[in-house]
Amino acid sequence: MWLHAKALSIATAGDLFGETGASRNMLHYLNGTGEPLKLDVDRMLHDDSKFRSGIEQEHVAGNQEAWRRKALEEFKRAGGDKTVVVPVESDPLHRTLKSEEWFHAVGSHAQNVSGMVTVSPGTHGGAPHVTLDYQINVWDRYNWDKGKSTTFPGGIVIPDADMGRLHTVGIAQEFDMRGSSSTYAHDLDSPSTAGITPHDPGREGTRGDISRGDEENR
Fold first, then answer.
1. Pick from 31, 8, 7, 15: which is nearest to 218 by CA?
2. Would you state the torsion angle of the CA atoms of residues 69, 73, 75, 80, taken in this order, to the nearest 10 degrees?
3. How does DSSP classify residue 55?
4. Contacts of 123 (CB under 8 A, 6+ apart)
5. Residue 212, C-beta contacts closer than 8 angstroms, at least 6 positions apart
6. SS (H, E, C) 13-70
7. How many C-beta atoms lie closer than 10 Å to residue 35's C-beta?
8. Torsions phi, psi of 5, nearest 5?
């Protein structure tokens, strides 16, 4: 089918335009296995500043006071003299990635933050210390919606319905994708909001490099 060939050429060209994540995901769709794919959330955080700031403000800053209060209540309930760890999780939000690569690779998705709040007794009877360790979680279904179109690198515009037809006729296969970031820490005793500073994962190699995700997902 000409559309499959065209989609394959777009996916293959993605590496040349620096859109390795988008290339990897489309090739997985065209391979037609339907197997779940692991998302590189650390790379998404590094590449998309609006995604990163949204996580900081909506999920962490928006919940940290309630999480701190809940953990301190558990600390008191446990006697106030031993460390307690309380699991926390923010409500899922549906957002859209803004960087060109990740818009093509994932686009609209669900996201939340999950982690643990640790309360430790203060030294010499002082105030307890409260910290948060958390991960960012992202999940979505890789599919194509009717009524939309996507502009790919090189200015190629393809209606989403055409891409979705590859799934309908059994040439390609939709799949679930999800991933979690590395663990980040935030001092809940500090008046400042959390700041996520992901390391630079690098850009060397292509979608076939093991550094670009789990080998079984290629």
1. 31
2. 120
3. I
4. none
5. 20, 21, 24, 40, 205, 206
6. HCCCCCCHHHHHHHHHHHHCCCCCEECCHHHHHHHCHHHHHHHHHHHHHCCHHHHHHH
7. 12
8. -65, -40
Residue at token pair 């990163």:
52
Beta bridge partners of 86: 117
Query: What are 151's two structure tokens?
Result: 């502009």
DSSP secondary structure letter of residue 57: I
Q: Which residue in this structure is represented by tokens 């190629």?
A: 156
Residues 6+ apart with CB under 8 A from 35: 28, 175, 217
Contacts of 194 (CB under 8 A, 6+ apart): 56, 60, 61, 64, 132, 184, 186
Tokens of 214: 């789990």
Contact 57, 111 (CB under 8 A): no
Mean of the per-residue pLDDT values of the chain: 83
Q: First vs last Cα of the chain: how many Å apart? A: 23
Query: Could you tell me if 96 and 85 are in contact, meaning their C-beta atoms sit under 8 angstroms apart?
Result: no
Q: What's the pLDDT tens digit per position in 88-142?
A: 999 999 999 999 889 989 999 999 999 999 999 998 878 999 999 999 999 999 9
Strand locations in the chain, DSSP E?
37-38, 84-89, 93-96, 108-120, 129-142, 149-152, 156-159, 175-180, 184-187
In this prediction the pTM is 0.82
